[in-house]
Predict the 3D structure of the following.
Amino acid sequence: MQSTTLQEVQRRSNATQKEPIEPITQIQFIELWKTFYELIPHDDMQHHHSLAVAGTLLLQLGETQKYLQHGIQKEIDDAMRASADDEPIKSPETPTSPEGGSSSKVGDLKSCLQDGEWRLQVEHIIATILAESSLSEFFEQKYCLLELAKKYRENPSKRKT
C-alpha cells in the first residue's frame, strides 16, 4: 500500500484542479477538528497542544473574516443608501468588535445560523497544519487507513454523537 504526504496531495490537487475547492463552513470545520482530536492518541499532549494552537488560529481567522465581511457589507449598504438619496457619503464607521456585543458562541449551531457563519479555505487549514511542525510530522506519517478505521469503529465510546 502506497501512502502519500500532505505536500504530495497538495501538489497533485494543484496540478489537476481546475476549480478551487469550496471553503468549509464553521460547523464543518468544528467537526473536522473534532475528528483530528480523535485521531491523535489521548496521551500525546504535544500534538493535542499543537492542534489546539492551530485550531485557535483558524477560529480567529474565521471570526476576523466574518467581522471584516460585515464591515464591508455595512459600508456598501451605506454607500447605496447615500447614492439613492443623493446625500454625501458619510465616513465609514468601524464595525463593532466581535468581542463587544456579540453573545454568540463559536460553534454554536443556533448562533451560526443567526449570525451567518464564516467559512475557511482548505488552503488556510493545510497551511496552518504545516506551520505547526509536530502536526505536520504527525500527518506526514504513513498510516494504514484500514487499521485506523478499525480502531475508530472499535471505540465508539470516545465519540460523542
Observations:
- Residues 45-84 form the longest helix (40 residues).
- The two ends are 32 Å apart (CA to CA).
